[in-house]
Amino acid sequence: MNPESANGDSDASGPNPSEHMTHALSGFIAARVELASIEAKEAASFTGKKVAHGLILAISAFFLWSLVLAGATGIVAPLADQWLHGKADWLPGWSAVVLALAIIHGIIVLICFLKLKKQPATPLFELSRKEIENDKLWLTKNK
To answer: 96: left (phi > 0), else alpha (psi -120 to 50), else beta?
Structure first.
């Protein structure tokens, strides 16, 4: 029989169980933090794309509205009608160009709107949610 084990000194036999638990817990927390960091970067990238498309949408919508107003003004402008008399009585030439630009900007607005409406391929923080659910199951199982 070992006299040290009889006295209750277990330092020579191996690490203290509380040190082992502390080390395991710190590893667990470090893994969770790293996972959250990776998913936060993915979320930031997704949000950055949404912001960029939102800005393009806002700028294009502004130009769409401006060009439609300019085109509508040009259609009713009597001076343009006099200038193009006999060539295109129903539509002044410069307003036709403005309306074409409005249509181009409208297409840009539609494309950006559809990109903003699109959902990400995988839900954000999917891995963290799964790990939290696994932790809940493990805790309920081991109570």
So the answer is: alpha
Would the CA dihedral through 32, 34, 38, 41 be positive or negative? Answer: positive
3-state SS, residue 15: coil
Cβ contacts of residue 125 below 8 Å, gap of 6+? Answer: 36, 39, 43
pLDDT tops 60 at residue 7: no
Give one word for 14, left, alpha or beta, with left for phi > 0 and alpha for psi -120 to 50.
left
- Taking the model in full, what pTM does it have? 0.43
Burial of 137 (0-12, 13-18, 19+ CB in 10 A): exposed
Amino acid 84: pLDDT? 57
Amino acid at 24: A
Give me the residue spans of the domains in the chain.
18-130
Tokens 């979320």 sit at which residue? 43
Tokens 């900007």 belong to which residue? 105
Radius of gyration of the chain (CA): 34
